[in-house]
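Q: what sequence does this backbone want?
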């Protein structure tokens, strides 16, 4: 017989027969899945060799809004203006590992120049095998360079985030109290209307 609780409390209704052993979830296949993912990455890298395992080359962009525009990240693809400035055809770019985005526009000269230099750096390290067809200005590599080609693990040109240097200055001791200044400004703002009213009444009384 259960004892009734004191005052306005919950009635005791314990459940002690839930068969918890039927609800236990195991994760014994975790090591096998880890091995399977590793083998899949290895097979994918061998299939796409000698291209970089990180995929296509992406531009450097800044996220929208003031909250995030101080960061840099990879964008979807290079604009037509950036490809033209680097001397790469938009039809050839996709075939040599460069992502192209026909929607994105350059709204600043800085972003155009930054991604242009990124394309030129990639172009200087690019090794194109013979038999790629019309390259529109890009030259195929020699047999010696082709034999020396190695696969890059990860992104071809990783994005380095800018680090702002901190500037320090000596602490200047002053007798002025910032708290007192703030209180004076607050008081002047609060009493501005009353002081104008008194000044106006004084001028009318003097007439």
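A:
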């Amino acid at each position: 017989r259960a004892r009734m609780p004191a005052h306005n409390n919950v009635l005791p209704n314990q459940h002690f027969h839930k068969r918890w052993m039927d609800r236990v979830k195991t994760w014994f296949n975790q090591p096998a899945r880890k091995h399977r993912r590793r083998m899949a990455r290895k097979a994918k890298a061998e299939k796409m060799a000698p291209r970089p395992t990180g995929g296509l080359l992406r531009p450097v962009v800044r996220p929208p809004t003031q909250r995030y525009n101080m960061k840099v990240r990879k964008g979807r693809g290079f604009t037509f203006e950036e490809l033209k400035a680097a001397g790469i055809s938009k039809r050839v770019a996709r075939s040599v590992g460069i992502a192209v985005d026909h929607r994105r526009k350059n709204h600043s000269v800085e972003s155009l120049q930054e991604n242009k230099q990124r394309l030129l750096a990639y172009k200087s390290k690019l090794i194109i095998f013979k038999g790629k067809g019309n390259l529109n200005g890009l030259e195929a590599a020699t047999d010696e360079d082709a034999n020396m080609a190695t696969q890059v693990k990860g992104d071809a040109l990783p994005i380095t985030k800018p680090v702002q240097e901190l500037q320090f200055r000596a602490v200047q001791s002053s007798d002025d109290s910032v708290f007192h200044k703030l209180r004076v400004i607050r008081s002047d703002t609060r009493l501005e209307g009353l002081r104008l009213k008194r000044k106006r009444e004084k001028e009318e009384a003097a007439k």
